[in-house]
Design a protein that fits this description.
By secondary structure, this protein is of the alpha/beta class. The strands form 3 sheets. Strands 1, 2, 5, 6, 7, 8, 9, 10, 11, 13, 15 and 16 form a 12-stranded mixed sheet that branches. A two-stranded antiparallel ribbon has the order 3-4. The two termini are 19 Å apart. Helices cover 33% and strands 20% of the residues. It has 12 helices and 16 strands. Helix 2 packs across helix 5, helix 3 packs antiparallel against helix 4 and helix 6 packs across helix 12. The chain folds into 2 domains: 236 residues, Peroxisomal Thiolase, Chain A, domain 1 (3-Layer(aba) Sandwich), CATH 3.40.47.10; 155 residues, Peroxisomal Thiolase, Chain A, domain 1. A hairpin with a 3-residue loop joins strand 15 and strand 16. The longest helix has 17 residues.
């Protein structure tokens, strides 16, 4: 059994703000939301900025004390609330045996883990709250949200580096397409915390300048935080209930190269395999692809390897397809990146506008792609790819199609 899968709800939180409207407006404007970090002291680090969500509103939790839950849960709440509201689905529409909640994250509630550690060191074990340890666990955040919104079942949690969010979306897609489920609320999230910031700093992967994906003078990435959630639904079911269909997910490919713990495989062989698998899965060819939302971190190795993978999978056509990375504006959201970028890809297909790759000034012969420098109205944008290539060689590619082009 193979069914078409519709996107009927999307929710997003990044340093641009809360909600699709502000995120899409600032993205098309090429606005940078990279700002000085306030959540922890950066005095000992070379880099002082990140894609931090400023003045994050406390959600109106009903079943939890707001002070009890982690920052990651707050981020996830806003994304879930927007996606569910847009979908028009109520708790009564969810059947535990025919639905799923799947999320990707690399950090879970790491901020709570840091709070516990600080309290333990500074005040002693008797003053360190055990609840912080519970909220540190990666399954705690989706459980809080499922309880809050009365969603049945057990969450699926994916944690395989920067591909986590995309893999969660891919899981939801496979579940609905196969007929094993009718609904899947899926996506990814990660909070900004010192643990991750220090880790990337120690790898010398953070830039002290602007994040410049694919630029010849790129010098590293910028960490960000946020969440993205998509409501995936069987196409016929969505049509029958009169839902507004935002886009269609038609393909998913994954691979793992196991080349290095942090460095991508230079030839992009495994990443290209994920791209090819996604295209075959979607039943489309290189000639059908109109846009690529790139992983594009802004590090020397990653961007060059991604270019090599695109050329290997798409052939000479790869150099003609518009490519851009939103990480130049909001930072790298780690486990949330794949889901947030999937949402931006759906918005590009729905509006016909391609988001820019800001800070791109000097072309690099190693990245000879058609980089979108400023937001552009596409003559044709029907099929798009969203790439996620993470540490440890975890690769995931999602393929989306615009609704108006679907028969």
């Amino acid at each position: 059994m193979s069914r078409r899968v519709a996107v009927t709800g999307m929710g997003i939180v990044t340093s641009h703000g809360i909600g699709k409207a502000v995120n899409w407006r600032k993205t098309l404007a090429g606005e940078s939301s990279i700002r000085p970090v306030t959540l922890f002291d950066t005095a000992v680090y070379r880099t002082k900025t990140a894609g931090e969500v400023a003045d994050l509103p406390t959600p109106p939790w009903r079943r939890m004390r707001a002070s009890r839950v982690d920052r990651a849960s707050h981020l996830l709440y806003h994304a879930v609330a927007e996606a569910l509201e847009e979908s028009g689905l109520a708790a009564a529409d969810w059947d535990a045996s025919r639905s799923a909640v799947a999320v990707g994250t690399t950090l879970g509630g790491m901020a709570s883990g840091e709070r516990y550690h600080r309290a333990y060191i500074q005040k002693g074990p008797e003053r360190a709250r055990a609840s912080y340890v519970v909220d540190h666990l990666a399954h705690a955040q989706p459980l809080h949200l499922m309880d809050e919104f009365a969603l049945p079942g057990v969450p699926r949690v994916f944690s395989n580096a920067c591909a986590s969010g995309a893999n969660a979306v891919g899981y939801g897609f496979d579940l609905v397409r196969s007929g094993r489920g009718d609904l899947a609320l899926c996506g990814g999230y990660d909070p900004l915390c010192e643990f991750a910031f220090a880790g990337f700093h120690s790898l010398q992967a953070l830039t002290t300048e602007l994040c410049r994906p694919f630029d010849r003078h790129r010098s590293g990435l910028v960490i960000g935080e946020g969440a993205g959630m998509l409501l995936l639904e069987a196409w016929d079911r969505a049509r029958a209930r009169g839902a507004r269909i935002l886009g269609e997910i038609v393909g998913y490919g994954e691979s793992n190269d196991g080349f290095h713990m942090t460095r991508p495989e230079p030839e992009g062989t495994s990443a290209a395999a994920a791209l090819r698998h996604a295209l075959r899965d979607a039943g489309v060819g290189a000639e059908d692809v109109d846009y690529v939302n790139a992983h594009g971190t802004g590090t020397p190795f990653n961007d060059a390897a991604e270019r090599t993978a695109l050329v290997a999978a798409l052939g000479s056509r790869a150099r003609d397809i518009p490519v851009s990375s939103s990480k130049s504006m909001i930072g790298h959201l780690l486990g949330g990146a794949g889901a947030v970028e999937a949402i931006l890809t759906v918005l590009a297909l729905a509006t016909g506008w391609l988001p820019p790759n800001v800070n791109y000034e000097t072309p690099d012969p190693q990245c000879d792609l058609r980089i979108v420098r400023t937001a552009m109205r596409a003559q044709r944008v029907r099929v798009a790819l969203s790439n996620s290539f993470g540490f440890g060689g975890a690769n995931a590619v999602l393929v989306f199609r615009a609704v108006e082009t679907v028969p």
